[in-house]
């Protein structure tokens, strides 16, 4: 655990603004597939109107090993958020036990970021897109 906190400290230090602020998003294997949501998200920083500067402050939380491997290919600030005995690579349905474990694990992670003295802006990439995907899936 000590090694993981040390790794997180290094990532946060590198990505933070001068006011110790970072932008956080989370991805799992499903969203990190090539030419899918994560690629589009990163591209939006590159091609958005004056948004490229924010990309260097983005920390991507990978919720599984496959997402972490993919993230490292695309972005310098990736953190592998592991949870013993839980696989977050698949979709977790709202309020299901795995979903609640994921929510609490993310809250614990964000608490750690605050304890380390950093501010953050949290994107809702997965939540929003999962909701949209769910709506499309069941209304078409």
Short description:
52% of the residues lie in helices and 14% in strands. It is α/β, with parallel strands linked by helices and 140 residues long.
Structure description:
- The chain is an alpha/beta fold and 140 residues long.
- 52% of the residues lie in helices and 14% in strands.
- The chain has helices at residues 2-15, 37-47, 52-55, 65-74, 97-115, 125-139; strands at residues 21-27, 58-62, 78-80, 119-122.
- α4 (65-74) links the parallel β2 (58-62) and β3 (78-80).
- The longest helix has 19 residues, at 97-115.
- Residues 136-140 have low confidence and may be disordered.
Question: Total number of helical segments?
Answer: 6
**Roughly how much helix do the residues carry, as a percent range?**
40-55%
Largest sheet: 4 strands, parallel
Largest sheet, order of strands side by side?
3-2-1-4
Unreliable segments of 5+ consecutive residues: 136-140
Query: Distance between termini?
Result: 45 Å
Structural class: alpha/beta
The number of distinct β-strands equals: 4
Strand content: 5-15%
- Overall shape: it is globular
* SSE string: HEHHEHEHEH
**What Rg is obtained from the alpha carbons, in whole angstroms?**
15 Å
Defining key terms:
140 residues; alpha/beta; 6 helices; globular; disordered C terminus
What is the topological layout?
Elements: H1 2-15, E1 21-27, H2 37-47, H3 52-55, E2 58-62, H4 65-74, E3 78-80, H5 97-115, E4 119-122, H6 125-139
Parallel strand pairs: 1-2, 1-4, 2-3
């Amino acid at each position: 655990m000590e090694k993981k906190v040390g790794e997180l400290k290094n990532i946060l230090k590198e990505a933070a603004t001068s006011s110790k602020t970072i932008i956080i998003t989370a991805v799992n294997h499903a969203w990190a597939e090539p030419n899918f949501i994560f690629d589009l998200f990163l591209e939006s920083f590159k091609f958005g109107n004056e948004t490229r500067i924010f990309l260097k402050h983005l920390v991507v939380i990978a919720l599984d090993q496959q997402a972490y491997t993919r993230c490292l290919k695309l972005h310098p600030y990736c953190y592998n958020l592991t949870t013993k005995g839980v696989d977050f690579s698949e979709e977790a349905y709202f309020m299901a036990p795995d979903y609640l474990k994921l929510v609490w694990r993310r809250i614990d992670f964000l608490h750690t970021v605050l304890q380390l003295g950093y501010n953050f802006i949290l994107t809702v990439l997965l939540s929003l897109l999962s909701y949209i995907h769910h709506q499309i899936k069941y209304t078409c």
